[in-house]
Structure formats: C-alpha cells, structure tokens
Amino acid sequence: MWGWHRQDTLNPTSLTQDLDFKDTWHLATGAQYRISAPWLLNFGIGYDSDFQDASSVSPMLPANSAWRFGVGVENQVSQMFKWGVAAEYFYGGTLDANLQSTLPVAVGQRCDLVGSYDNIGTLFAGVYFNWTF
C-alpha cells in the first residue's frame, strides 16, 4: 500500500545525540532570624555544579552551574495558622553554545549553532499558608 516492500535496504540515520551529562553536587546553607514574636525571617544561598561541558551547552537544556539566593518571611498568626512569602533568584551566568552538525546533507541540510546565553537569571516567588488542626 505504501511501497515499503519495494525498499531494498533500511539504513536509517540516527537523529539522536548523547548530551553527555555529568554527575552534579549541590551545596547550600541558610538561617532563620526571629524579627519579632510573629515574624520569622528566612534566608539562604546555594550552588549547583555544572552537569554539561561548560564550553558547549545544549540548546535543549540551556542551564548549567548556578547560584541561588533566597529570602522569605513567615507570620505566625496563631498556634494553628501561619503564612509566608518567599523569593529566590537563580543566576546561571553566561553559557556558550558551539554545536557542529553531524547530519549528512541528504538528511536535511547541515546547520551549526554558535552563540551564547548571556546573564541567565530567573526570579521565583511563592506564597504559602499552613493550617494545623
């Protein structure tokens, strides 16, 4: 019906690529400080090691080693209820991408990707409520 039986050989070209991720480690520290009876200040810093070759980061996952800085406050309204807000800034620095295509021209053109992701940073924010019963 589709003509597959007329193909003499099946020699597919692989379109996958091994990203060669490395093992990582994480180091962090933090503290809490009681500002007043209902208010608690939380803060911390953390570091994640790189999991890709720093000279060529994959565009499929443009991230690598990163610093994290966090701060938050919590308010104890009663023995049963507390709420808080927190923010974290994730800084990943500048990441270089230098990928050379290994696909043959017959599969769909050769393309190279060379460039960088400059000053990667993300701000996370959250609000939480805790009711104990």
Plain-language structure description:
With 133 residues, the chain is mainly beta. 3% of the residues lie in helices and 51% in strands. It has a five-stranded antiparallel beta sheet, with no helix packed on it. It starts with 25 loop residues before the first strand and ends with a strand. The mean pLDDT is 85.
Q: What structural category do the secondary elements indicate?
A: mainly beta
Gap between N and C termini: 67 Å
How many domains in all?
Answer: 1
How many helix segments? 1
Instruction: Tell the overall outline.
Output: elongated
Strand order of the largest sheet: 1-2-3-4-5
Report the count of strand segments. 5
Order of helices and strands: EEEEHE
Residue share in β-strands = over 45%
From the alpha-carbon coordinates, what is the Rg to the nearest angstrom?
Answer: 24 Å
Name the helicity range.
under 10%
Largest sheet data: 5 strands, antiparallel
